[in-house]
Amino acid sequence: MEAGAIAARLAEVRSRIADAARRAGRDPGSVRVMAVTKTQPREVVEQAIAAGATLLGENRVREAAAKYAGLGGSFELHLIGHLQRNKAAEAARLFSCVQSIDRLETAEALDRRCAAAGRRMDVLVEYNTSGEESKSGARSRADLDACVEGIARLSSLRLRGLMTLGPLGGDEESTRAAFRLLARVFEEARTTAAGSACDVLSMGMSGDYEIAVEEGASLVRLGTILFGPRDP
Ligand SMILES: *Cc1c(COP(=O)(O)O)cnc(C)c1O
Prior knowledge:
Mean pLDDT: 96
Radius of gyration: 17 Å
Bound molecules: pyridoxal-5'-phosphate
């Protein structure tokens, strides 16, 4: 795929996002698009940046390190996949935000590495809103709250919000319910001291981003709809 084709797809999704935002009475400018480049080769990343993508996402630390090394341009890179503690140092070098924190131990490891590197990092806590066993993310509200409160005590991390994945192959109703749940928990978290800096609600992928925008997403994560199907 070429930069022009990616730019056209970006324009199409931005227009659909604007429509979804208006349906919900939201400001169309309040939703950011992340281009998810996992499994895509480096040349696709370069084309996405040339096409105007300014926010990119990867779900594996090693893959991101190899693919993004030395890439020029002005963009942000976020980790959206599970972070193993032994990759925390590399993550602290590579990403401006880790969206997939689901245990305090991981946050603490990342905090130590960021402190050692003299930087602060934005993080989101991932919540498993569908109850599916195969998914990562905090599994209960108590686990989520413990994570949120614990992160607030870490000096090198800044809690910016929450992230979730909609149910796998879910129908519209269950998808909407999952996003609505995250939006409610997000609003509650923002009223607490620990969550007072939260302004990012990351939900919605290629198959369900319009529903996510209707339910309040401020960031949608899109791969397939921008780059085509991934090789298995
Ligand atoms: C792969 C991935 C996406 C993008 O999925 P698409 O369906 O290809 O848009 C979004 N979020 C996460 C966490 C992912 O792993």
